[in-house]
Amino acid sequence: MNGENGILMRVSNLKKYYGEVHAVDDISFAIPRASVFTILGPNGAGKTTTLEILEGIREPDAGEIEVFGMQLKKVTRAVKERMGVLLQDGNFEPYLKVKEVAHLFASFFKRALPVDEVLAKVALKDKANAYAKTLSGGQKQRLAVGVALVNDPDLIFLDEPTTGLDPQARRNMWSIITDLKDQGKTIILTTHYMEEAEALSDYVCIMDHGAIIAEGSPRELAARLGQETIIEFTAGELVDGASDGLETYGKSARTEGETVTLETDDLVHTMEQLLAWSREHQVPLKNMAVRQPNLEDVFLSLTGRRLRE
Amino acid sequence: MKGILRIAAGHLFTAFRERVTLFWFLIFPVFLLAILTLIFGNMGQEGEISFAISVVNLESNTAGPVDFAAIVEGVFKETGKASEEGKEPLFTLTHPSDGEDLEEFLAREKEALRLGRRAAVIVIPEGFNQELLERMMRSGSSPSGNGALTIFVNEGSAASEMATSIIEQILAGVDREILTHIGHFQEGEAIPSETLWVGSGGEELSYVDFLLPGVILMGFFVNGLFGVPGSILFARDRRVLRRYWVTPLTVSHYLAGFSLGHLTLCLIQFALIFMLARFAFGATITFAQPMPVLFLLLGAITFLTFGFFIASVAKTANAGMAIANILNMPMMFLGGLFFPIGGLPTLLKVIVYANPVTYLAEGLRMSLGVQGETFSIPLTLAVPVGWIAFCIFVASRRLSWDVER
């Protein structure tokens, strides 16, 4: 984590309640400059509400936000001048052309980049005269990113930027995000995709039920699970008694449908036990994979649930 | 502010590119004008209109210095002649047959009026000449109108409403003629009636002239009541406005830009309707005076702010359209745009007098000289301004980028 001078945004004791529901429950975190800070959590964890407070869409019930050296109760117009936001569910006027959309948003800011430059950044220059309604999902998302970058912001919010995109479009978006980070921009990201968070994030904050349950770099978080290795395989339908003994292999084992997951800190020994079990019960170990723990495993170990449940 | 100008431009681009918007903004009012003029304007005879009226002259004392009754009767007979060959006269006059009892003739004409076969029955009463002489001795003005004459009209008839308006204008002209004749007339004293004067050298008032201000206001009305909340609420439902929310753009800047774009569209719409009316249907009225321009602008702004009001109280676009439909009927049909508002039950009259359309239609027609003065000019300005203030007050407090806010 950067030193005090390297913090672009600091959030202290932020709260947002809707009656009995604690959407955001007294959270605090700090976001270093020129980094990708990812908020991770299942649906309803409070990450979008947190983001909307930081974007100026909602007002918090309590807490303080310090950004660009200013201490605020809520986000002001001056802060918005230096922010770029990609909303999860925003849209464009269908009968405006791509370049008109970019000009429109550029006109809202005191300082804006040339529209051609913005469209080139998101690879939409050849679509400048196309109506927004004719763009594909990936192109629309790139336009949304372009609009978020039109004021050359220092702080960029990307709320699930790759949801609904095909693998190629997702890779393109990752490349744009990496470029932005290389340019020294600070990015706050939310995502459902573990591999995305692991590939892009410098710092991850895991939320559940409105609270932060873990934070750190992806490597630091995975290291919390110790030196364990994960063994996964598909066992097909296990006949009665077939799973007997499996739970004693490694540090822990669990069966979800046909998938068996084992955690071990002695890979060789556990593998030997597993192969013996396979021969004894005549269960083929299909799709076997041996891997290091990821953020999904971290969330699972903290909450007993998967992120996408 | 460049943001306001860009919002205005975006609004215009969208309106011209979206077929539905284009239809309601430009095609529909033009269509309406054409249809109404062709159907009611003597089936396409260059937008002319003719009213069936009768004049019953009961004055028997013609021995005085001036036979005013004969002058008034003569004027209306004159209007019963076509100014050009092949053209319809403004009034088709029914006369009593030779030797017919005038009281019986009057009773018969009143019945015809009740049945809708006459637009008006003008009665010049016994003692009319003496009454006018006495009035002139007292005040030196208003010889023909104000109770000296009786005009019977059918309050439920559009033709009666229009004919009455024209008759009042003609009588104002007669006033001037008589006062000039006896040397009492001073410039600026009488009601100016040159454009409506029917006779040698004057122009005839056509139905399209009567209709044109109403159609223009109706165009603004539909744009404001349906177009404005439609654009705003559909953009909100589609989450277009959410994107503006996270920029420095404020709601008031957005509304200012939207208003600028909307008023530009109204101007284009006005130009189209006006050109159609003038060049295709022979309308003669001109709007190039301060008061008609003021009323047009006031009308466009009034309906625009009604649109803002609807957008601010409706949660969804569908709810907005429902509210617009609920407001549409009383505002459109109880405002005197196309139908007479006289003779309505008291409850409906309350709506008429609260309806800004009533004052805008009246004020615009009055300023164009196609209708007599029912309300004072300050009142026709004050009521719409009051509504504008109310709508802006509500919209400024309630309109938001997102319904969940």
Supply database-style keywords.
heterodimer; A: 309 residues; alpha/beta; Rossmann fold; Alpha-Beta Plaits; six-stranded mixed sheet; globular; B: mainly alpha; 14 helices; elongated
Q: Topology of this structure?
A:
The complex is a heterodimer of chains A (309) and B (405).
Chain A: E1 7-18, E2 21-32, E3 36-40, H1 47-55, E4 62-67, E5 70-72, H2 77-80, E6 83-86, H3 98-106, H4 115-121, H5 137-149, E7 155-159, H6 167-182, E8 186-191, H7 194-200, E9 203-208, E10 211-216, H8 218-223, E11 229-234, E12 252-256, E13 259-264, H9 267-281, E14 286-291, H10 295-303
Parallel strand pairs in A: 3-8, 3-9, 6-7, 7-8
Antiparallel strand pairs in A: 1-2, 1-4, 4-5, 9-10, 11-13, 11-14, 12-13
Helix pairs in contact in A: 3-4
Chain B: H1 2-17, H2 19-40, E1 51-57, H3 68-79, E2 91-94, H4 102-114, E3 120-124, H5 128-139, E4 150-153, H6 158-182, H7 207-237, H8 241-245, H9 251-279, H10 290-313, H11 317-333, H12 346-354, H13 356-368, H14 377-398
Parallel strand pairs in B: 1-2, 1-3
Antiparallel strand pairs in B: 3-4
SSE topology string of chain A: EEEHEEHEHHHEHEHEEHEEEHEH
Tell me, what's the shape of chain A?
globular
Strand-residue proportion of chain B: under 5%
- The residue fraction in helices of chain A comes out at 25-40%
What is the straight-line distance between the termini of chain B?
Answer: 26 Å
CATH T-level fold name of the largest domain in chain A = Rossmann fold
Biggest sheet record of chain B: 4 strands, mixed
Note the total helix count of chain B.
14
Count of extended strands of chain A: 14
CATH class of the largest domain in chain A: Alpha Beta
Q: Specify Rg of chain A, calculated over alpha carbons.
A: 23 Å
Question: What is the assembly state of the chains in this entry?
Answer: heterodimer
Short description:
Chain A has helices at residues 47-55, 77-80, 98-106, 115-121, 137-149, 167-182, 194-200, 218-223, 267-281, 295-303; strands at residues 7-18, 21-32, 36-40, 62-67, 70-72, 83-86, 155-159, 186-191, 203-208, 211-216, 229-234, 252-256, 259-264, 286-291. Chain A is α/β, with parallel strands linked by helices.
